[in-house]
Amino acid sequence: MKKQPQQQHSSRGCQEPRPHVAPSAGGGPGQGGAWRRRRPLSLLPFLSLRDYGFCMAALLLFCLGSLFYQLNGGPPHFLLDLRHYLGNSTYLDDHGPPPRKVLPFPSQVVYNRVGKCGSRTVVLLLRILSERHGFNLVTSDIHNKTRLTKNEQMELIKNISTAEQPYLFTRHVHFLNFSRFGGEQPVYINIIRDPVNRFLSNYFFRRFGDWRGEQNHMIRTPSMRQEERYLDINVCILENYPECSNPRLFYIIPYFCGQHPKCREPGEWALERAKLNVNENFLLVGILEELEDVLLLLERFLPHYFKDVLGIYKNPDSPHGLHAAQEDPSSTQRSMLGGTIR
């Protein structure tokens, strides 16, 4: 058998021939034809170079306009005129009445302060805080009437509810049930102290007034004889003087029990009613013996009323401290504090 002659291969190795690509109409490059070229890929293939330039110019114009707006505190006047021309609705969006005031929560607070439980100091702090934080401090010039008739309750609740909010109303008065008379129930706060310490404080207050140096003890007890005024409290207790034989340790309970006649009778009913009202209506009932902790809690719970109160209390000699607020507020301050409510 004859062997087939081996084919000689070039040094470049065996390569398959490339398929012939037909030129477009008109022939190849040497014959006046042109190869078809693919269009490069683009994120926005439908935009031309001119379109890109227009977009960049618009973006630059927007940035310059925004910068001009911020540097001049508002848009140029011609833009306002343009908005007015395009439609009154868009123009009034910026030039209409101001939005309603957003009230803090709670915006209605009542401090029905218990007598001889540090209320004088707290009221002085509230005077300073009301000017600093801008809330409406509403006080009362009635100090010795804590029990009210039904008509008096309705009148007082009506006057309190119509005060400008946010307000804080304070007065020596037993708990008032606003919802009973169709009003919105406010948030209550109060401070109490050890009943024995409260009795001791009241004993000396009736005889010599408070630290302000007032002569109101002469008004409170005008018929008190001198020997009774300077009576030693130990003698008063040991010899069973009427004032010391009934120390009125129940005095605090009606401030939380309320205006019901049974709240004035010492007993379990009044105590349970007071505990129920504390749980349902009082945000905080502090203890005077721990006043700094109480002020710190008030600052945390009601910051729009009591922010910085602890610092003011600890620095009484500062220009805006407690010592500066001991004097009665001027007529201007009274109007800022919301006046008085009977």
Key phrases:
342 residues; alpha/beta; Rossmann fold; five-stranded parallel sheet; 16 helices; transmembrane helix; Heparan_SO4_2-O-STrfase; Uronyl 2-sulfotransferase
Word description of this protein:
This protein is an alpha/beta fold and 342 residues long. The protein has 16 helices and 5 strands. It is elongated, with a radius of gyration of 42 Å. Strand 2, helix 5 and strand 3 (167-170) form a beta-alpha-beta unit. Strands 2-3-1-4-5 form a 5-stranded parallel beta sheet. It has helices spanning 49-71, 77-86, 88-95, 119-133, 150-161, 195-208, 216-220, 226-229, 233-238, 242-245, 254-257, 268-281, 291-301, 303-306, 309-314, 331-336, and strands at residues 108-111, 136-138, 167-170, 187-192, 282-287. It has a domain at 108-201 and 248-336: Rossmann fold. One of its GO terms (cellular component) is Golgi membrane.
